[in-house]
Design goal:
The protein folds into two domains: about 25-110, 3-Layer(aba) Sandwich (Rossmann fold); about 135-270, Rossmann fold. About 40% of the residues lie in helices and about 15% in strands. It has helices at about 5-25, 40-55, 70-85, 105-110, 120-130, 135-150, 170-175, 195-200, 250-255, 270-290; strands at about 5, 30-35, 60-65, 90-95, 155-160, 185-190, 205-210, 225-230, 235, 245, 260. It has a six-stranded parallel sheet with strand order 1-11-8-7-5-6. A three-stranded parallel sheet has the order 3-2-4, with helices on both faces. Strands 9-10 form a two-stranded antiparallel ribbon. Strand 9 and strand 10 form a beta hairpin. Helix 6 packs across helix 7 (about 170-175). It is globular. Bound molecules: nicotinamide-adenine-dinucleotide. Nicotinamide-adenine-dinucleotide (NAD) binds near residues 162 and 273.
Length: about 300
């Protein structure tokens, strides 16, 4: 029987641990500033979910909404204010930003000490070097799912489809580290990779993060492989009440018949991202309160 790797359960367990820990904090609670620029409907939903999770765990959230035509100078001023604000431990700038803004420049304005998304180049560099830092939340969530289900990547061939800065590249950096829960042999594939199937078939652990609905089919997967589907794609589904549904980058039904374990969509990697954001925020809070090495 193929095992389902249920991120929603892993995430619930991480959130419960965090809540227990936060309840022990006397005085100020951890604080997360969440910034939304513009009217992107999906971004509004994500920001709402982050605020709700903060409230559930006892993290204070500070919402800042800028209009679609806000200038880069306005956003930089807001970020600098939050960098200096002692009630704020973490800053989350919801992406995507409106097209007139330079995303890298805005993200780089966030203080690395408050960069709970793990996107600042200083933190990405530390991650690559195996130094302690904020890990970007979605790949961090993938690592935690594997840990929860006792799937050790050590010595395994991990093939990652996708080389984005938020999933593929940081996940490769995490998997390759010389540390417990990692130690994998890593291959990254992308849109220019040739003979993709011959590479994916070598994977002991196959991770799909490409954004193409049900792209990974059974013929691309080795018998007994672990398959992690990061993709979240909304597709037409006239048979449903909503007329659409969410699917991953993996053709779940057919790949399930080949894989030994697989994450579903929804309920797999998706719920992990917010849980890891909360974990990073609590880490930021503790570092803010105490000298680095005492944590
Ligand atoms: P992206 O669009 O930034 O990158 C896609 C990557 O896929 C690129 O590096 C590209 O080279 C690669 N690619 C495209 N076609 C390919 C092919 N045929 N073979 C191999 N590689 C190919 O995407 P992203 O931001 O990394 O997101 C990927 C998917 O993960 C999306 O479905 C997104 O919605 C989802 N996602 C989910 C979460 C979550 O919380 N679970 C978070 C981030 C992204």
């Amino acid at each position: 029987m193929t095992k389902q790797l249920l991120g929603k359960e892993v995430s619930a367990s991480i959130r419960a641990e965090l809540k227990t820990e936060i309840d022990t904090f006397t005085g100020r609670k951890p604080g997360l500033a969440v910034i939304l620029v513009g009217e992107n409907p999906a971004s509004k939903v994500y920001v709402g979910m982050k605020k709700k999770t903060c409230a559930d765990l006892g993290i204070e959230s500070f919402e800042h909404i800028l209009s679609q035509d806000a200038t880069e100078d306005e956003l930089v001023a807001l970020l600098n204010g939050l960098n200096a604000d002692d009630a704020v431990d973490g800053i989350l700038l919801q992406l995507p930003l409106p097209s007139h803004m330079d995303e890298d420049k805005m993200l780089n304005t966030i203080s690395p000490e408050k960069d709970v998304d793990g996107f600042h180049p200083q933190n990405v560099g530390k991650l690559l070097q195996g130094q302690r830092t904020f890990k970007s939340c979605t790949p961090y969530g993938v690592m935690e799912i594997l840990k929860f289900y006792d799937i050790d990547p050590a010595g395994k061939h991990v093939v990652i489809l996708g080389r984005s800065n938020i999933v593929g590249k940081p996940l490769a950096a995490m998997m390759v580290q010389k540390e417990s829960g990692a130690n994998a042999t890593v291959t990254i594939c992308h849109s220019r990779t040739q003979n993709l199937e011959s590479i994916t078939k070598q994977a002991d652990i196959l991770v799909a993060a490409i954004g193409i609905p049900e792209y990974v089919t059974a013929s691309m997967v080795k018998e007994g492989a672990v398959v992690v589907d990061v993709g979240i794609n909304r597709v037409d589904a006239p048979e449903t009440e909503k007329g659409s549904k969410l699917v991953g980058d993996v053709a779940y039904d057919e790949v399930s018949s080949v894989a030994s374990a697989i994450t579903p969509v929804p309920g797999g990697v998706g719920p992990m991202t917010i849980a890891m954001l909360m974990k990073n925020t609590v880490t930021a809070f503790k570092e803010h309160q105490a000298p680095l090495d005492s944590i």
